[in-house]
Design goal:
Blueprint (H helix, E strand, L loop, with lengths): L4 E2 L5 E2 L28 E7 L5 E4 L8 E5 L1 H11 L8 E5 L2 E5 L2 E2 L4 E5 L3 E5 L10 E2 L15 E2 L3 E4 L2 E7 L2 E4 L3 H8 L11 E4 L2 E6 L1 E4 L6 E4 L2 E6 L2 E3 L16 E11 L5 E3 L4 H7 L3 E12 L4 E5 L7 E21 L7 E22 L17 E22 L6 E13 L8 E4 L1 E9 L30 E9 L3
Parallel strand pairs: 4-6, 5-7, 6-9, 7-10, 8-13, 9-14, 10-15, 13-16, 14-17, 15-18, 16-19, 17-20, 18-21, 20-22, 21-22, 22-24, 23-25, 24-26, 25-26, 26-27, 27-28, 28-29, 28-30, 29-31
Antiparallel strand pairs: 1-32, 2-3, 3-32, 11-12
């Protein structure tokens, strides 16, 4: 074990060179509920908040990586067996090279799921309830996102967990979402589609160094959780695939998203906190979010969205060093009458946006309610929104900023921003209604509702200098080795 350090952006599986050997893990009294005749060797090296005392491979529990055989029972049996070590040093499940077809499975605490670089988890396309159990709608939503009833559980799921790591050497999780997208578009679904990864009511989550492709719906969804790191993730989905959001922290505290590359049919990152009266009643905000070094391609959606489900509140979101190409908007705030809640203390700097419809978009009339029971007097508060040090090339419009009549969006600050409009654009650069704020050194000149401050002198918008607690989470270098028995 090496000294503590920040979690790096690369993990590796190495070939039998480690000096750290875990002994006694291969006996029948240890982690193996069902064993292959010969247990395959493996060695894993990865930085993690907590190292594990016990390890096993999926093949120990009958896993077959041929892309045809279902491994749902193997995953469930392996994790059930390894859960005995929740309070005994924790455990790691190694997924070897192969194509591992599976339905949904639940994780356990003090646990690492590690994918070899040539491992592919394939979500089964069967909608058999044994493969995809149905669970209730989220309490802060009160309603499925695709249909009024319940929802299929996510491919990788967990609730009330502590210290969970999903990682690898850029192994792949393939949601095989085309069947789900087709059924959704044809309005044939009676339940909400599964996500790829969802962890609820959990603490100390690390999701890193994986490739996620073709999710049926959202890709990564931590909800009602805290101390979350999402790092070094590649997310790929067709740009016309419905609702394939990248990373959606939802009613979470202390989240760090960094070094991710996302191509999506929806928002690359969407910060959420509940839907209308259900989110207001649940009352759990998302706060203390760091987003950095994100690359996004999303032609019909936002690079970073705040909402539209924001009824529990969103505050203290810090985004910097963002690159977007061919996306609809750089930052979008989405809300509506009936949402209630708030979006405040938002800080964005260091964005480069290339080929955009809008650099900035705020929407006070988003609509999309779970039912007709929302309170029309529940108005959202949008305040202290800061954008600075941003370069935009080839934009159709600079901004579309639309507050709510009688409930204006206030405290907007835009500084040191240059927006190059597309040569063929005939749109008015700025469209502003029911907002107030200031600007400084912005090209083209903003609307009158964002007056220039001290012309000729740059007045920078705020960006906090302090660090959030999630930035101070350290990792250890953990090594696991198993030889032939």
């Amino acid at each position: 074990m090496e000294s503590s350090r920040r979690i790096p952006s690369s993990f590796k599986v190495i070939d039998m060179v480690s000096a750290f050997v875990l002994l006694g893990l291969l006996t029948s009294s240890n982690v193996h509920g069902r064993r292959s005749p010969a247990l395959d060797p493996f060695e894993v090296e990865c930085p993690a908040v907590g190292c594990r005392a016990h390890c096993a491979a999926l093949t120990d529990f009958g896993g077959v990586g041929d892309g045809v055989t279902s491994n749902t029972d193997a995953f469930r049996a392996a994790i059930a067996n390894l859960s005995q070590y929740d309070s005994g040093g924790g455990s790691l499940l190694f997924v070897p090279p192969g194509r591992w077809l599976t339905g949904s499975f639940n994780l356990t605490s003090h646990f690492t799921l590690y994918l070899h670089k040539d491992a592919v988890l394939l979500a089964t396309q069967s909608q058999d309830l044994k493969e995809w159990p149905v669970i209730d709608p989220l309490p802060s939503y009160g309603h499925g996102r695709d249909a009024p009833g319940g929802r299929y559980v996510s491919l990788i799921f967990g609730t009330n967990l502590t210290d969970v790591i999903i990682t690898g050497e850029n192994g792949t999780i393939d949601g095989q979402g085309a069947l789900w997208w087709d059924k959704f578009l044809k309005k044939e679904l009676r339940l909400t589609r599964p996500y790829l990864i969802e962890l609820m009511y959990s603490d100390m989550i690390q999701i890193s160094n994986l490739t996620l492709v073709n999710s049926p719906s959202w890709n990564v969804h931590p909800v009602y959780s805290r101390n979350i790191t999402v790092q070094g993730i590649t997310i790929l989905a067709p740009v016309n695939s419905p609702n394939t959001d990248g990373i959606n922290p939802d009613s979470c505290t202390d989240t760090r998203i960094e070094d991710c590359y996302i191509v999506s049919g929806d928002d690359c990152v969407a910060v959420k906190s509940g839907w209308d009266e259900y989110g207001i009643a649940f009352g759990m905000p998302t706060k203390k979010v760091v987003i950095r070094r994100l690359t996004c391609i999303s032609p019909t959606s936002a690079v970073i969205a705040l909402g539209s489900e924001m009824s529990g509140g969103i505050e203290d979101v810090r985004a910097q060093d963002i690159l977007a190409i061919n996306s609809e908007s750089g930052v979008r705030i989405k809300t509506a009458i009936g949402r209630g809640g708030y979006v405040r203390d938002i800080y964005v700097k260091g964005m480069v946006l290339k080929t955009m419809k809008w650099a900035f978009w705020m929407t006070g009339n988003y609509g999309s309610h779970p039912d007709d029971k929302y309170d029309p007097h529940a108005l959202p508060e949008i305040n202290n929104i800061n954008y600075r040090d941003i370069v935009v090339e080839n934009a159709t419009m600079a901004a579309r900023l639309e507050g709510i009549p009688g409930d204006p969006f206030t405290g907007i600050c835009i500084s040191n921003v240059t927006i190059q409009l597309a040569a063929e654009s005939k749109e008015k650069p700025w469209n502003c209604t029911d907002i107030s704020g200031i600007s400084s050194d912005v090209i083209p000149q903003p609307c009158d509702l964002l007056p220039e401050q001290r012309k000729g002198e740059l007045v920078q918008c705020n960006f906090p200098n302090d660090s959030l607690p999630i930035d101070n989470v350290d990792a250890q270098k953990c090594t696991f080795r198993r030889e032939y028995l």
